[in-house]
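Morning F.,

Quick status update on the modeling queue. The single chain you submitted on Monday has been processed. Sequence for confirmation:
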Amino acid sequence: LKEAARIAGANGIPIDVLPLSYAYKQEVIFKRLAAPTRARSGQTVSLRFILNSTGVSRGKLRLTLNGETMDLNPESEDLESDVVLQPGTNVKVVSVPVGSRGMHDFKAEFIPYEGQDQVIPNNISSAMTYVAGPGHVLIIEGNINKPEEGMPGQFLQKALNNSEIDSRYILASELTDNLTHLMDTDAVLLVNCDASVFSFQQQEMLTRYVKDIGGGLIMIGGNRSFGAGGWIGSPIADILPVDLDPPQKRQLPKGALGLVMHACEIPAGNLWGKRVAKAAITTLSRKDLVGILAFQWGGGNGPDSSNWVFPLAEAGDKKAALAAVDKMVMGDMPSFQGPLNDAYMALKDCEAAQKHIIIISDGDPQLPMKSLITNLNKAQITCTCVMINSGHTGNLVQQYSMIAKMTGGRFYQVKDPAKLPQIFIKEAQVIRRALIVEETFTPRIHNAFNEIIKGVGTALPPLDGYVLSGPKEGLAQIVLGSEKGDPILSTCQAGLGRCVAFTSSVDSRWAASWLAWGGFERFWEQVVRWVGKPSQDRDCEVFVDVQGREVTVNVEGVDAEGQFMQFSQIDAQIIAPDIQSTSMELIQTGPGAFKGVFQASDSGSHIINLRYRKPGETGKMHVMQTPVMVPYAPEFRDLTDNVALLYQVSEISGGRVLPEDPTQANLYDKTGVKFPETPLPIINKLMFLWLAFFLLDVAVRRIAVDFKGMARRIAKSLKRSKVKKADQTIDRLKAAREKTQEQFVRPASKPTQPTRSKTAGKRYVAGEDYEGQLPDAKIDQPHTEDRPEKPADKTVNDKKDSQEEDTSHISQLLRAKRKIDNKREDNP
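Structure tokens below.
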């Protein structure tokens, strides 16, 4: 605390303190109930009651084992034992025989006589002892609303008992939320249970039981199980070997759900509203329709009105709908007429076999018009009303109940907001009935070598229905399937445990032929034995010491011969009462000895989960669990205040010491408070600036630049570009001149001098065509003298050319080009 005060003071944040002075002179603290963490079957263990007292105190000691009070005073009718505590530490020892197996939960309490104690919460302490032995199977059945439907869980219990498997039967409402109570359970069977009867913590507990503890889980179908029971999107859905929301391979009826959300005037009302909306959405199939309405001022009618937070559409992967819930702002609607009419207009024309509306409210808005309720009934749209934490009674409650009754829905009046998510899950699964397939078929064997159906035979009896699901990727295997390829029996490994999904039932509704089948008991015996948790090894001894919230764990590995055992790998995991798990580091302190320490986040039962491998074993993981109880919060041990520490905090941070009556203090007095200033470091910017200057300095020192040479090169390049452009221009002009000369300036043909043929003596003119010309006739050529060639005079030629060429504009351009060519020849 002082370190935090120093940090606050350094940042200019003063901490004001208000000391509460107290001192308990007559107080008894139940420091610890010491019990062995593990024991053998039938062993008598010693329990030590350790109590601290500030003076002489009188009272009674009470001890309970798994909720039943034990007799600590055999000589009297009272079960409690009278004790007199002396100042200081008092230790009382009691010997208790433990049962054959299972978890033994001890709870000790000091009951003071009047005036002998002041703080009651520190008078209780607990401990747990685990007795290893053959485990049992826990059969959990959904709450039976209609006894005439039968109790399939009891049929299954009878079959397992006949197979010498110890089984216990409970209803879902009787399930604990304490994971330590499942440590002696080999497997849990959920028989036709819907998700709404389990809390989120119980679902997380079952998931941890399988993945971390190594237990087995079997989900058995029925009209309230798997996707039809609202398990889509639940924590247990992640570990099951089937996909509860498979891509639809065939056209199935859709469901449509509309959520009308009203801002409830309760603590965290909007937060609860979002939680229940998410709980309902996650249970839907990807093909189902979902829409969310929340009142907003200015909302009109129709799907595009401002009342729609998420217009009615397919749920899909549900990301868009869940994101809309996060952004939802629920207004305090004056009447249900507008939002409910919007829901009606959208649902009445949608393609859905089941249409359902859920309303959540605190009862303040005005009721909708009767004509709208009549329209909902005609459109076969059911409506459920949930009134939360409302003081309204009598006529208003009756009217809300009448709305639900007229439309075929249900009415809930909830006092505890924590129950809302389960109600919405239950209501959302109304539209999930499309996942139930009721038709007679014979299961097909997909994996004949699986241990579950080994020896059962290939001729399986027919089934009359199942809950539609799909295969899951990964290590999941389909053992039995329907004629259409849908999973009937699937298995998988989930963490340290195993899971089995049987999508049909174990009652006469879908499995009447199986109940009369001779292999029914053997089939379920093999299923339970395959999925069950293996027995724990006794290679490790775990010793736990609890001091306040600090728990010290010592692990010793000893083999059957009493020799220290080394481990190739050992890990420890702590599972808290809220089902959150954390890792604990184990440090080796000697041969086969390890030590770890962890801080308990809360009071209650924790589980130390050890996982280790032995040298030479590859792929095999050994598991061992040990429970530990962490008592009440440490502040209940303090008998006096710590005002000196509070004064130090105030002085270090520059805060004030407020008077004991906070109404007399100005809590928001800013006198002497300075606005905190935090300097921003500029070293990074300076580093980049320095780097730029460094590179520039290196460039100036190391690189020599010839500016004159660069200028010459630039000038030469410009000159060449000009000459090139001039050449291109002259070439174009020359081509145009030649073309023009061919058309207009072509000279006339000169007549040819007549010649005489030496052979025939007939004269003809060359170039003329004479008929009857002799083929061997020759033309007389004019006589010319051979004259020596003279060198060409350039000046003369230029002069001659100037005389012979036309004085037209084109000729002038041609002469200009020739002059340029001559200059280039003279100056190459």
